[in-house]
Structures are given as C-alpha cells and as structure tokens.
Amino acid sequence: MATIDMQTVKTLRERTGAGVLDCKKALVACDGNIDKAIDVLREKGLAKAISKSSREAGDGMVFTYIHAGGKLGVLVELNCETDFVAKTEDFQGLGKEIAIQVAATDPSFIRLEDVPADVVEHEKDLYRVQLEAEKKPEQVWEKIIEGKLGAYYKENCLIQQPYIRDESKTIDELIKAMIAKTGENIVVARFARFKIGGKPTVC
Q1: Which H or E run contains 114?
Q2: What is the pLDDT of residue 30?
Q3: Where is this region: Involved in Mg(2+) ion dislocation from EF-Tu (predicted)?
C-alpha cells in the first residue's frame, strides 16, 4: 500500500474540492493514484448531487462579469438553498467562474433539455443533408447524427460545456462537486450575455 502524504491529499483537494478525509480515503483505495482517486470522488459527488437535485434552490446570488473594457458583460443567477451557502467564498467563486464561462463561450442554452424540439430537428436535417452529400450509407446515419448532436449540445449548452480552465471537467461536474461540498442543491437559473454591437443572449 502506498504511503499517502499530506501534499498528495492537498493536491487532490485542490483539484476536486472534496474534504480532507474523503480525499485520503480515495487515495488509499486507489493506492495513491491521483487520477483514479479523482474518478472515485467524482462518482461519489455525482451520487450525492443526484440525491439533492430535487430539493428547491430558493436562495442564491446574481453574479456579473465585465470584459474587454466594458464591451462585453454577463449576468448569471446561481441558486442554492440557503443564504448561508450563498455568502460562502466557494459558492461565490463558482458563480464568478460560471459568468466567465458564459462570457468566453457564448452558450445558447443552459442545459440540453432547454433546446427546443424544432432546433434539434433543424440540426438533424442539416446533418442529413451533409451525410447525403458525403454519400454516407443510410444505415449509419442515425449513429453519426447522434454523435453530431452530442457535439452540438457540448458547444451550445452551458452545463454540458467543458470548463474553460480545466477541459477534463464539464460545468455540470463543477456544479455537482460544489453540491457535494456544500450539501445543498445548486442550480444555474438563468443568464444574459451582452456584447456591444451584437445580439444579446438571454436564457
């Protein structure tokens, strides 16, 4: 069994936001392998997050981010369950990071469930035209279209996007890690992105 030193525990905490005891247990279980321990903690965080996702998030804060000398601005409403969590440094840090994410990536929707059915069908029609032009056999169309839709959601839905500071994580995973850490449900309620000379995105 590998010896788990505090520096390794600290590194794992910084990368996952999990508690010291959880980090140590995961490292022991994974024989000191940080990458495997991260997977273990993410799985645990996901399970905790799912159990809390049905709880009402009636508190929270509105976060702002202004970029490019005032030429680009973002508002994000991030909800949690209590004012206590809303005022914590961790929650506020998450809100600011999500606002920066919206500024950088300009998503069109919050989550894939928000994408209207007619938009999905329009995308599918475009993919079918492409596949026909590429003379791809029809029996593989649906599988290819499914993959292309996945890429579309990943690009256009905030929750599905890779986190710009660490693309090994999605925004969804970032939020779920915070849910596991705070013990409260956390939800992106809405956002608005404004750019001088451009059409605003409001979700």
Answers
A1: none
A2: 86
A3: 82-85
